[in-house]
Specification:
single chain; 287 residues; Rossmann fold; 7-stranded parallel β-sheet; 9 helices; globular
Length: 287
Amino acid sequence: MKLLNKKIIVTGGSQGLGKEIAKHCLLEGASVAICGRNVDVLNEAYNELLQFKQDKQHLISHKCDVADKKEVADFVSKCCESFGTIDVLINNAGIHGSKNTVDDPEFDLGNWINAISVNLYGALYACLSVIPHMKKNGHGKIINLSGGGATSPMPGMSAYAASKAALVRVTETFALELKPYGIDVNAVAPGAMNTRLLEDVLNNGKGKVTDAYYQNAIKQKESGGTPLNKGAELCVYLASEESNGVTGKLISAVWDDWKNLHNHLKELDSDIYALRRIVPEDRGLEF
């Protein structure tokens, strides 16, 4: 088992990819804590995940809004009381937020700001709560779920794109700051999955996101999208000791040969798998 005796927190673990990640962590021998905002959905996920727990493992579920710093701190505190420590933090909780172009008269500033609060501040609050425990232990893993919003413009969903791009730069920066303490920090792009976020676009995005994006969402729904297990398996790898030293990277579960990254630590000490500015020379141009 790759995660035997590891103590892992998965935010947004009550549905979709978060629940799939929690399942894979349990199957690999970890004790897991999940959180979510909807108590009914959270309880349903907890009962579903119980079937994957062995006798010596712990499974915790706790209502928590990651945009609330105090609730996050209380959740982490409860996890530490039950687990004794925290080895891995997986920041999965996320929302699309506002689905309007900036010139739309109905542009929803409140929802725009809320997306930043959940996607960026929520991850930050969780990091601030677990890092002291990881520093004390001399090791730890932080995994931030990013995705396509970090690497491409998303007309009609600028809050989502901005928060995810910011989360990658936070990942890169924290990786450098925490490297002396044996803490690896990475971001994961899990692929285009058919989760509640896709349903959100299909149900609420027509006429707000671009027509091209909406049509792609329909095609994704019909094709089945990227299987959830791909992102979950990458998270297990990054949470395991096998990936020790892989840090500060944005890794695609679909496109990257991530299973062998630990064999290329020297090469990874560069701007590979990182967000960087492209200059004319990179494209064979001079101007």
